[in-house]
Every structure is written in structure tokens, then in C-alpha cells.
Amino acid sequence: MSSQSDIRVLKVDLSSGEIRREGLSQEVAKRFIGGRGVGTYYIDSLLSGDVDPFSPENPLVFATGPLTGSSAPTGGRYMVLCKSPLTGLIACSNSGGHFGAELKRAGIDLLCFVGKAEGPTYLLIHKDQVELRDAGHLWGKDTHESTDMILDEVGIAGAKVACIGPAGENLVRFACVMNDKNRAAGRSGVGAVMGSKLLKAIVVKGDERVHANDQERFLEIVKEKVKTLDGHPVTGEALPALGTKVLDNIINDHGAYPTRNFQTGVFDGTGEVSGEALRDKGYLKKNKGCYACPIRCGRVTALPTGNKGEGPEYESGWAYGAATGVKDLIAITEANYLCNLYGLDTISAGLTIACAMELYEKGHIKREELGSGPEITFGSSEAIVYYTHALTFRQGLGDKLAEGSKRLAEHFGAPELSMSVKGQELPAYDPRGVQGQGLSYATSNRGGCHVRGYLIAPEVLGIPEKLDPQTTAGKAQWVKTFQDLTAVIDSLGICLFTSFALGAEDYLDLLNGFTGLNYTLEEMMECGERIWNLERKLNFKLGMEEGSDTLPKRLLEDALKEGGQKGNVNRLHEMLPEYYKLRGWDPSGRPEEATLKRLGL
After folding, report:
1. What CATH number should be reported for the domain whose range is 431-500+520-598?
2. 10 Å Cβ neighbour count for 148?
3. pLDDT band at 6, cuts 50/70/90?
4. pLDDT digits (tens, 9 = 90+) for 123-139
């Protein structure tokens, strides 16, 4: 999206094969910025409330932001949006790598798929050429093989691929879209929706330059922000040194490292599976960065088994490690590699297996349910690898695991053992040890999620200031501010990790420097608030029930029994009423008419 033009939409009807270009007005861009914001606006215009996530009527939208493909630091992000098959609510997954920048350089702000193809299909975008091609020979192939085969087939230097693996094809409810082989639009099952449309991949090569309104001035702003990122202890030192797994020991020492399906907040095997261990055992080979990224937190790894790939990241390593009680870094990394190959959200996959382990431990899953599979017990290296494969191909118990922990736990009569919010599995921070993060989880529009309001920054890391993690006073305001600012960052098309070093004023500089639109800080933050409220309004249209802003009973009632947060539960009831009041929502969590009117919704 150049600063002066409308938003450029490429709409592909997979049922009819019709491909057409349309536009959204600059007014929409001004009010919703781009990326997540404009994507949500567009999805809202297409979605009716009762559509089945796997029906042809569920639109699938790839959305770039104004800074995607620009020289802005980390300006390679894009979003994938649809109705989630995991939660039934808005799915909006963020990915990095180089695919998003290439899509933007091909002159596309939004790429929308509707309908369902007659057989496996992929889309090729190259200059003026936009065509659907047969993908029958690719169906069943993993994401790496698919990517290599497509690039070999099209023969276009510099082309980038986003595709699904067998998990998406088999409609695993937490399948993801993989781009550049190892980058994932990870959460909420966007890959399963892609699979339901028989859309295997998108391959794109752009040739446009993404220029700012005043390119010279914008490059000065970029230089200044890169200097800030380079000079910050998190973005300039910790993340480049150890990647996201720099957090393992920090969160464990704090006492909020969820272990054995959130039964405790301390893992005695952390030292064996941490970021430091990944480095010291020689599995970490080098850093890798996404498009225009000065941080370079990606990990290129290789194992003594001969397998190699990227990761695991903090969340992935935790989900297959502490959450399942596994202390074997090789098994954890192997399971992570499988997720990349098969196209699986590592958080939901690992935590669903952890849920099954507790169901087995408590006698809800019987030995005969496992067939010839290994016992699904906490600490089993064999189990995490075996059941990752089984759930991908829906074999045996894997067929039930592929539905996610909420449906799994309900099926076996113990719904309280699913550690999820709105049907999506929680990430690697126990909200009994971080009160504000608990409120952020409970109110997240896409279900259990840490990247919609990362309160770990102030509550544990002391960024931008240190908050008492057990105080509930004032946390509602912090959560609202973080959620609104995150909506802005996602909409710009840059990485959330920049927010460790950059503040709202920095994002305002980048937004105005690129678009030339002269937002005030209040106007920019109101865009974030508008996006958050539109997502909430859309969720109610999609059937979200009142009372969904809650946490698993265990986290509200069972106090942590050990570690630095011993004796604590999450006190959500102390924060939620104030949060609703600050948001301008009624006591059931619905935006009030005055709020919608003020935000032009």
C-alpha cells in the first residue's frame, strides 16, 4: 500500500476459478492501518455468523501492512485471517520470514480466497501473471518437499512459498500455514481452513519497490529505530544470543513455567532443555533473521541424529518439554522439526499431548485407547514424537488429539483438564504467577494467547517498567494499552519483538514517516482500540458466548504448590470488571453502543 493509494485486494474464487482485483478506500486504511486491522475489517464484511469453518463460505485472507516489504526494521510480517476451526471465533495468525514482503512487492495488500477448489491447487503470482495450477502431485507432501518442488517447477528466481503440510490437508484443527519452510502463521488452525479449500500453496515473486511517502525522511527514521534496537539489552543482546529460549530459566526461576499440563509452575529439567543447553550441547549452529530484521532471533539447529532444521523457539520447546514433563532436548527438537514439516502449531500440539498425558494419568484414557502406540505418560520422549505423527495423520488416539485439548478433554469426560481459553491452548506462562498476563489471556479475542498483550514484559522483565506480578491494581489499564498497541504493531506489518525496545512514539514515527498521514499518538492508539473492538464485535457475531473471558478452573482455584509464586491463584475477578469499564463494554463483555459509535463501528 503506497501512502497515497487505496488498499489493493486480489480476490480468488477457488470454486469458479475467477480471479479479480478490487480495492478498499484510503479511508479504511486510515482507520484500520493495514495488516491485522484491515484484514479484520475485510473478513467482517464477508463472514456471516453461522458459517462452518470448513465450509467454502469461510474466507481465508492473507494481509500485509503498510510497512511490510519496506526498509522498516522487521518489516516482513503478514497475517492470515479466517473463522477458526479450533475456537469458532476470529483467527488471525502472524508470520515473518520473506513471504509477506514478496506478496507486498507483488502489489498486493490483501489476498482473499473464497470457495473450494475441485482438486488440490496452488496459486502462482508473478508480475502480471496470476493463475491457479494443479497441485495433485504435491498433496501429501510435507512443507519442505512441497516448497522445493514448487520452486523447481515454476523456475522463478527469488520466488517465495507459503504452503500447508499433511496436518492442514487432514484438517487438524490447529494446523498452520508455513512459509519459507520454517516460519509459521501458527495459531488457531488457519492451515486447516487452507486445507479445507484444497489450496496447497501460494508462490509469489514481486518486482515493485515498497516506497514511503518521503523515502529519504523515512530512511532516517529507520536508521534511528535500528540503532535503538541494536542498543537494547533484549533486542541487541539476549535475543540474538539465545533466541526466544533465553526465557526458559527466567520464567522457571520466577515460578511461572507451566509444567505437566499446568499442574505446577516449576520444571526440574529446565537446565537440560533451555536456550543455554541448546547452545552448549552444540545443537545451535547459527542465527537467522527474517526480512529486514536486525534482531535475528531465529535458530538454525542440527542434532546428533542427523536431522536439522530451525528451532525450537521458547513456546515450542516448552510445549514439548516442561508441559509434557520431557527433559530430552533431542526428542523436543525432533518433535519441533516434525511440526515444521507437517505444518502444526507447536503450542496447541504439545499442550494437547500434555492434556492427554494427564487424562491418561488420571485414568480417563485407558491403555486400550492407545492401540499399538506407546503409553502417553508425562516425561515420555517416545510419546511426544509418536503422537505428533499420529495426530497429523489422525491415526488411533491421534484422531481425537487432532481436535485440540478442549474437544479431547470433553470427549473423555474431564473438560477441566484442557488448559485453554475460548478453545485455544494457553502458552508458556502460568497466570497464577503473573496476574496481568492472566487477564490478557482471558480477554484475548483469539483465545489463549501471549502475543496480544505481552504483560510478561513489565511483570517479569521490567519493560518498560517493573510491575509487581501479584498486584491486580492497575493491571486492567496496562492490559488494555498493551492490547491496543499490539493491534497497531500487527497492522503495521512489523514484528512484536521490536516492542521490547521501541515505544508507542517510535511506531508513530514509522507510521507517519511511511504514510505521510500525520496521525497523532491518540489517533494511532484509537486505531488499535478500534481493531480490538471490531474483533470483539465479530466474535459475538460468530457465536461467542457471554462468560468466555475466563481461565481454566485450575488456574483460578488451585494455588501453586512450589517455587517463587507458591500459594498464588489468578485473581481474574479482581481485574475483569475494571477492564470492561475501561473498554466501554457492558458487564457481559459486549461493546456498548456508545463505544461502537465513538469508534465508528
Report:
1. 1.10.599.10
2. 13
3. confident
4. 999 988 999 999 999 99
Helix, strand and coil content of the chain, in percent to the nearest 5, comes to: 45, 15, 40
Rounded to whole angstroms, the Cα distance separating 362 from 352 reads 15
Counts of helices then strands in the chain (DSSP H, E): 25, 17
pLDDT single digits (tens) 39-55? 999 999 999 889 999 99
Say how far apart CA 447 and CA 452 lie, in whole Å. Answer: 10
CB atoms within 10 A of CB 549: 22
- 7-205 maps to CATH 3.40.50.2300: no
DSSP 8-state assignment for residue 82:
E
pLDDT at 1: 37
User: Cα separation of 403 and 443, whole Å?
Assistant: 23
CA atoms of 529 and 518, how far apart (whole Å): 18
- Going from the C-alpha of 158 to that of each of 42, 178, 205, 244, 288, the distances in angstroms are 29, 17, 7, 28, 18
- pLDDT band at residue 5 under the 50/70/90 scheme: low
pLDDT tens, position by position, 162-190: 999 999 999 999 999 999 999 999 999 99
Please report which helix (H) or strand (E) contains residue 249, including its range.
helix 247-254
φ, ψ for residue 549 (rounded to 5)? -80, 70
- Return the bridge partners of 160, or none: 204
Q: In the chain, which segments carry CATH 1.10.569.10?
A: 244-424
The model's pLDDT over 263-294, given as tens digits with 9 standing for 90+, comes to 999 999 999 999 999 999 999 999 999 999 99
Cell numbers for 301, please give them. Answer: 539447529
370-413 per-position pLDDT tens digit: 999 999 999 999 999 999 999 999 999 999 999 999 999 999 99
Q: Which residues contact 190 (CB under 8 A, 6 or more apart)?
A: 60, 80, 81, 82, 84, 91, 93, 175, 176, 177
C-alpha cell at 587: 458487564
What is d(CA 252, CA 247) in angstroms, rounded to the nearest whole number? 8
Burial class, 80, CB count within 10 angstroms (exposed 0-12 / middle 13-18 / buried 19+):
buried
d(CA 59, CA 319): 30
- C-alpha–C-alpha distance, residues 393 and 169, integer Å: 9
Q: What pTM does this model have? A: 0.97
Reference 446, options 487, 401, 495; nearest CA is: 487
| C-alpha dist (Å) from residue 435 to 340, 474, 478 | 32, 11, 11
User: What CATH class has 244-424?
Assistant: mainly alpha
Q: Which grid coordinates belong to 401?
A: 488429539
The chain-wide mean pLDDT, for the chain, equals: 96
End-to-end CA distance of the chain: 23
Output DSSP code: residue 370. Answer: G
Q: What gap in Å lies between CA 455 and CA 461, rounded to an integer?
A: 9
Give the model's pLDDT for residue 128.
Answer: 84
Give the β-pairing of 424-425 and 420-421: antiparallel
Task: Tell me the C-alpha distance between 191 and 166, whole Å.
Answer: 10
* Segment holding 23, helix H or strand E: strand 19-24
